Automatic annotation (TrEMBL):
Name recorded for this polypeptide: HTH cro/C1-type domain-containing protein
Gene Ontology molecular function: any one: DNA binding
Organism expressing this protein natively: Richelia sinica FACHB-800
Domain HTH cro/C1-type: 481-519
């Protein structure tokens, strides 16, 4: 390109470059890993052993990729000399600091729950992983596809496909099955963790964050497993993340009604997650790392987040921002011994935003949690019905007593005779009565209160203990908010995200320059455990 076709860079051109950089940075990171990390493995083992205990590796990769990307883009479009390039790097690096915020913090450090997306797309992607036989099929073109249609509006649907990493070519059935076979409860747990980290990003579709494999091992409860050494756990984490990188999504979705006719959250085919896996440790003679010391998972949320997890877009009625809360203990449920418990907990976590009253019929939950064939067999076989009820009772007992979920049985349709723990002989026809029984089941406190206060922001919707409190009684001072926030270890941005306000607003509140509304005060009291 000749110099007359280039233009001199100005600070005002910065925004134009940012989007191009974000679009290219994922591919460039992979290229750096492919080209340069083998040399580091061979010559700088001490560096990687140290990196296993901190986040310097990600910063080193990110900075090198960012600088090289800016250099290539700027050189192709702008007339920039060597003295100007560092200036441009500093400007854009400052603007892109949010891309690395995710790897600086960890989940569940200050409370036993985290915000998580709960749009229909999340449920469809999870069902594609743990109800594989029911959801995946071969379409007319021979492509593997999993489809979810909205019950209220069948014209709304979500489709999932399988591709190879770094490509969006849809795989045929036989090839896709090799990836689908890797899906399961482990991939669902990683999926939920990635989604919780994504909630912390201001613009997830423009963000990158990284998570250590050792942290994921702890979060999903594998640190308690003694039958596998750490390097095998890390390799399993890497394989599972690889499978998630192959999961694609397409949505045709219009929700709500307004002057524009509804929010159109339709998306083209794209990745759920762009994932780069960075193992490091001792390299063998073949150039492979058979026993990694650590694995870094670098995640870039897919474009679906712009349509389904966009706070600003939701306020302008152009996108959705639907979320609930994930209890930490859900991730620690053992799928081998507590499978139905985990299935119920995952579904109820996502559905609690919609079903605020928590009222369900037993058959409804069994049909959602288990393959339909299991219920059909139980209806035809008395012994299978007995075993299914025993599994159901065990799941409810674990949710209630082990995980502190809130369960109440309807006295008319769910008598003591049918409830968990009853030792009496079951009467004839008990199984059909159980299926028609009703119960109320909600996640542990304070998740239902937080969800209710977000959906219906009225003081009476919060905790019963403050239901009749006057507005004067629940007002908080700025110093009270600041002290409680610091004691909980929250930055101002985290509290702001829960309240759907800006960080500047929280700063003004804590300085005493802006008051909280009565509803906001009540909500902050719940979040920060402020008691009078």
């Amino acid at each position: 390109m000749t110099s007359d076709k280039k233009k001199v860079f100005k600070d005002t051109d910065n925004h134009e470059l940012n989007q191009s950089i974000l679009n290219e940075i994922q591919d460039n990171i992979k290229q750096v890993i492919r080209d340069k990390l083998p040399h580091y493995f061979l010559s700088e083992q001490t560096f990687y052993r140290a990196a296993a205990d901190n986040s310097e590796l990600f910063d080193a990769i990110f900075n090198e990729v960012l600088y090289s990307t800016i250099s290539s883009l700027a050189a192709a479009k702008y007339q920039i000399d060597e003295n100007t390039l560092p200036h441009l790097y500093n400007i854009i690096n400052k603007d892109l600091e949010g891309c690395r915020d995710g790897q600086k913090s960890s989940l569940f450090t200050s409370q036993p729950f985290e915000a998580i997306p709960t749009a229909a797309l999340m449920l469809s992607s999870i069902n594609s992983q743990i109800k594989k036989q029911e959801f995946w099929h071969k379409n007319e073109e021979g492509i593997a596809v999993a489809q979810h249609r909205a019950k209220g509006n069948p014209q709304n649907y979500i489709e999932h496909y399988i591709s190879t990493p770094g490509d969006v070519t849809l795989l045929p059935w036989n090839e896709a099955q090799q990836i689908i076979d890797k899906f399961g409860f482990n991939s669902v747990k990683l999926h939920l963790i990635f989604a919780a980290y994504t909630m912390e990003q201001e613009k997830p579709w423009e963000s990158l964050f990284t998570i250590k494999g050792s942290e994921l091992i702890e979060k999903i409860g594998w640190d308690k497993r003694t039958n596998l050494p750490k390097h095998q756990k890390l390799l399993e984490i890497a394989k599972t993340a690889f499978a998630l990188d192959c999961l694609l999504v397409k949505t045709v979705w219009i929700e709500g009604r307004n002057r524009k006719g509804g929010i159109n959250a339709s998306t083209p085919v794209g990745r759920m997650w762009n994932i780069t896996i960075v193992p490091y440790g001792q390299v063998n003679l073949s150039g492979n790392i058979e026993e990694p010391l650590e694995v870094q998972i670098i995640i870039q949320p897919g474009a679906w987040t712009k349509y389904f997890l966009n706070r600003a877009g939701a306020e302008s009625r152009e996108a959705l921002f639907q979320f609930g809360y994930l209890a930490q203990k859900v991730l620690e449920i053992d799928p081998y011994h507590e499978e139905l418990t985990l299935r119920l907990a995952i579904y109820l976590t996502l559905d609690s935003r919609v079903r605020l009253d928590g009222n369900y019929r037993v058959q409804e939950l069994i049909e959602i949690a288990l393959p339909k064939t299991e219920l059909d067999k139980a209806l035809c076989d008395r012994m299978k019905a007995f075993k299914l009820k025993r599994r159901w009772d065990k799941a409810l007992d674990q949710l209630l007593n082990k995980l502190n979920w809130q369960i109440a049985f309807d006295p008319e349709t769910y008598p003591e005779l049918l409830r968990p723990g009853c030792k009496q002989k079951q009467p004839k026809g008990y199984f059909n009565k159980l299926l028609n029984a009703r119960l109320t089941i909600k996640p542990p406190h304070p998740i239902p209160e937080l969800i209710a206060s977000k959906v219906k922001p009225k003081l009476s919707q919060l905790q019963p203990k403050i239901k009749d409190t006057t507005s004067e009684d629940i007002k908080l001072t700025g110093s009270q908010v600041r002290e409680a926030r610091i004691a909980k270890g929250w930055p101002q941005t985290k509290l702001a995200s829960f309240l759907s306000v800006s960080q500047k607003f929280i700063s003004l509140v804590e300085r005493g320059d802006r008051p909280l509304s009565p509803q906001q005060s009540a909500y902050v009291r719940i979040l920060l455990d402020i008691k009078f």
